[in-house]
Structures are given as structure tokens and as C-alpha cells.
Design brief:
- The chain is mostly beta strands.
- The strands form five sheets. The protein has a five-stranded mixed beta sheet with strand order 9-10-11-13-15, with no helix packed on it. A four-stranded parallel beta sheet has the order 2-4-6-8, with no helix packed on it.
């Protein structure tokens, strides 16, 4: 589908459950991708998000299970909750430094995203912990942000090393980390 330049807003759930939709080009006139806009478009493999978009809404691409890669434009500052939840074939995502806020569960179920030292990454954001039993964690050097609830219930965590590249730490990122007693900032 190609949306004409006269469109400035694509309403909530506009393409919800369009399981035969495979590709879409969003025009530069669109400012926001609303809640559930493409949720359940299970055969969507390609999408172009223009530089005019500043916000990607709650569950906008939830369960787009054939989406393998996506590039977020520099204009986006916020990625809301569960945006890419259940995108089981997502292997690559580019998140620009303009993104300063990320909701919870944005990449939940995206098991093909890379894991390094027990931490799963979506580009430069730490988004999931694959082993919550570790005592120490070290974020990779170029990490830009920590997703909300990232280390929640890592009860054995005693220390973490965070690079000075981190600009955003999501709410409750260390919630219920009862043994955490040392945070190191590394440049």
C-alpha cells in the first residue's frame, strides 16, 4: 500500500489485523504512528518510516512476525510501550540518538535480537536480560539507554558497570534488585 502525501494522520488501529499486508510506504506528511496502527500485520516485511514521524505509538507494530529489520528515523524521540512486541523475526533495528524515551516491553518476544553477556540489545539500547541469576553485569561500551524494568528482579545482582554513553535509564530499571550494592560508571 502507498499512502498519498495529503494524509497527515493514520488513525489508531487503521491496519490492525491486515494479515495479508506485506509492504507500506508512509509519506513525509505523517507526524505520528498511532496505537495499534499495524498490530497483527503478520506478513508485513517492509515498512518505510519517514523523517516527519516523531512518535511511534503503543503496540504500533505488535505481532508483525515477519518484520526482520527496521530503521527508525532521526526525527523520532519516543517509542511507546510494546511497539515491536512479538516481532519474532526481527533481527536488526536502527535506533537513532534522538530517541530519548522508550516504553516497557518494546521488544518483548524479539528473541532474534543480539545478546551479549546475558543482555539483549536493540541497536544501542539494552532491552532485556536473558539470565537474571548473574551477580555482575557489564553493559557494552556504546549503550545509549536502558529499557524500563530491564534488571527487574535480578535478585543476585551485586554490581553493574554502565558506560558513560548511557543517556537514558528507564523507570524501575533496577526494581527489586535487593543485592545491588555497586554501580560503576565506565568511560
Amino acid at each position: 500500500i502507498t499512502i498519498p502525501n495529503s494524509v497527515t494522520n493514520i488513525g489508531m488501529s487503521a491496519f490492525f489485523g491486515c494479515s495479508n499486508l506485506t509492504s507500506i510506504i508512509i509519506p513525509n506528511s505523517v507526524r505520528s504512528i498511532e496505537r495499534y496502527t499495524f498490530s497483527g500485520c503478520s506478513n508485513l516485511t517492509s515498512i518505510t518510516i519517514p523523517n516527519s514521524v516523531t512518535n511511534i505509538g503503543y503496540s504500533a507494530f505488535e505481532y508483525c512476525s515477519n518484520l526482520t529489520s527496521i530503521t527508525i528515523p532521526d526525527s523520532v524521540t519516543t517509542i511507546e510501550n510494546s511497539t515491536f512486541y512479538g516481532c519474532t523475526n526481527l533481527v536488526s533495528i536502527s535506533i537513532p540518538s534522538s530517541v530519548t524515551s522508550m516504553g516497557e516491553n518494546v521488544f518483548k518476544g524479539c528473541s532474534l535480537l543480539p545478546v551479549e553477556d546475558g543482555i539483549q540489545y536493540a541497536d544501542t539500547w539494552a532491552v532485556n536480560v536473558t539470565n537474571r541469576e548473574e551477580g555482575t553485569y557489564t553493559l557494552r561500551p556504546n549503550t545509549a539507554g536502558l529499557a524500563p524494568y530491564l534488571f527487574m528482579d535480578c535478585k543476585n545482582m551485586t554490581s553493574i558497570t554502565i558506560p558513560d554513553s548511557v543517556k537514558s535509564i528507564g523507570y524501575r530499571a533496577f526494581w527489586n534488585c535487593k543485592s545491588l550494592n555497586a554501580v560503576y560508571i565506565n568511560d
